[in-house]
Write a sequence for this structure.
């Protein structure tokens, strides 16, 4: 991925390099040809690691809302998550809170999305919420 505007300057004449001056990219190495002086500027481009959407922790839950879960849905849930496989359907029904929600647990986003897809195939409505960040927990 190459940013539209570069933060780099020509090492020879200090000209601000433009994206259009990029001549080659080898993995994380970018090669620019400076439009001002013709110098070949080599930049080691390190992708910003802050956005790793598939590694984010998410809270995964099943939402029924006003409808109470059917036996069929609760058996589907047992197919979906090994954690619930051993639980009898009556037990699962007790675990559904007043908002019609049953928490499956915390998963990384990639797994959460797999669960959501599987859940949909089983006729379940899976909700993915992002975990509150550390900063938000320290508000008080
Ligand atoms: Zn230059």
């Amino acid at each position: 991925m190459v940013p539209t505007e570069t933060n780099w300057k020509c090492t020879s004449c200090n000209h601000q390099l433009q994206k259009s001056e990029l001549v080659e990219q080898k993995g994380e190495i970018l090669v620019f040809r400076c439009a001002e002086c013709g110098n070949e500027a080599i930049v080691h481009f390190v992708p910003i690691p802050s956005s790793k959407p598939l590694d984010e922790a998410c809270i995964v839950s099943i939402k029924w809302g006003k409808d109470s879960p059917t036996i069929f849905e609760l058996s589907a849930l047992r197919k979906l998550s090994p954690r619930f496989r051993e639980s009898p359907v009556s037990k699962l029904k007790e675990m559904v809170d007043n908002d019609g929600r049953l928490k499956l647990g915390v998963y990384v986003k990639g797994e959460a999305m797999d669960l959501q897809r599987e859940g949909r195939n089983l006729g379940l409505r899976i909700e993915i919420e992002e975990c509150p960040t550390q900063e938000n927990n320290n508000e008080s």
